[in-house]
Structure formats: structure tokens, C-alpha cells
Amino acid sequence: MGGGTTLDSKELVSVIIPTFNRAAFIINTLNSVSQQSYRPIEVLIVDDGSTDETEKVVLDWKDIHETLDFQINYIFQSNQGAPAARNNGIRNAKGKYFQFLDSDDILTFNKFELQIEKLQIDGTAICISDYSHVDENDCLLKYLSRDFTINEIISGFIAVLSSPPLINKEKIFYNCIYWNEKIKKLQDKDYFLKILMTVNDISYVNQNLFKWVKHKEEGITNSIPLKGWVYWSIFKSLLHFHVANLKYIKRNHYSAMFLLYSRLILFSLNAKGVMKILRYLRK
To answer: What are the φ/ψ torsions at residue 86 (nearest 5 degrees)?
Structure first.
């Protein structure tokens, strides 16, 4: 189908996929979206300046899979990083619901169906779920439960990653929060903590709805070490957001946010030493 057909945005899921030189992996990711039990869906693949066969692979896949209720938009941009690609996707997205997805990871077939049902029942802005780490052969490496309260996630600086959550943008102020394009690592924590600061509660599905695939080669983000400046950049980003949007920050999260800020300052002063202590305490 041609890209000119208009989808009803009322219950549309916009899947935003930043990619860079992922021709070898992106088809599995796209297939996991097309196999969703839910419709309607629009897929926005934002190519962050790939130099491999990503464009050809994506457009060939689009020719085969695009339908009236499953539309695909390939967007090419100069290399600016994943946060900038996600923001480009946000600006072009038409859906009520947002799903961020890295171009080498996998959604389970019923993710949207289960999370939208939960969002509608609870009347919340964001629904998280459990997820798993798998290797390239789909062998389970680790299962992670995300059964936490909103204040536990904030105060504990707990990762929810970019792909497990589904967001109802109509429940977020301004209908949108953009990614900080200056942060080089842990951008997902920065982004979702900002959302959590502005909502009263979250929804949770106690099922594994996402597979984080661990590849042999090192990714760009993984190549950046967790130095103190990483935590300091996140602290500054969150604090600036807090001050700029004070009237939207929920007061019932203030205690959790104080613990979060204290933790980030401590990490920024001695990231390596703090991480060693935390690993010891978890044994």
C-alpha cells in the first residue's frame, strides 16, 4: 500500500525505531512488530545515517508488509545519535500510544494488546512489564521483573529500558516529552524518570513482553564507560526538567526524587567505587 493512506489516530500505536547500520538485525525486530495481535499500528524507522544496506532492507520489507492498518514510514537523517532519531520519530508520529524499540530487539506478539487493555482499565499514562535478556540464539540469559512502585523506580534509579513501556501520550503534559540529545549513556533512564515525575501512578503487566538481545559485538552506547560525568549529566538534565516544569511534578514523588538526586550526586563523585559497593551489597 502507498504511504498516503491516513490511519485513525484514536487508538493508533506509533512504534518508533531508531537504527544505525542494523541491516543484519532489523528484520527480526520489524517482524515482531508486524506479528502483534493488535491493530492499528504505524512503524516509524528513523535511520540515523546508516552506511550499510539498512535502507534497502527496510524498504523491501515495507513493500511486503504494509497494509491499511499497518503503515510504515522510513525516515533518513544525518548521524545525530539515537535520542535525536527518537525525537524525529516523535515529531512524525500520529498515534495515541508510543512504543520505543531498538532496532535489534524483540516484542512478544501480545505486548500492545495486554498493555493497552491495562492502560485503559487503570487510566494511567505508562505501562511497564517484565522483560528478558536473550542471546542471538534466543537462549534466556536473565529474566527481570519490573514489579516496582513508581517511587521505588524513582528513588532506586531502576532501569525500565526504552522498549518495555507503552506510553499513552494523551495522559502526559503537552502530550509529549522529548529525549535529551546531549546525554550519551543511560538516556532511557533520564527519559522515563521525567515521565514518572509527572504522573501519579503506573500500570504493570507481570509478563515477559520484551526480549533484549545481547549481541557479540559491542554497541556504541555500551562502549561508553560509566564515569562520574554520565551520572552528573543525568542529574543536571533531571533537575533542569524539574525546575522548568515544576507545576507538573507530582508532590507525592518528592521524597523519592530527593533520594534519586542524592544517589546521582554520590555516583557522579565516585561512580566506580559506588558500583563496587552496590555489587557487594547485592551478593
So the answer is: -65, -40
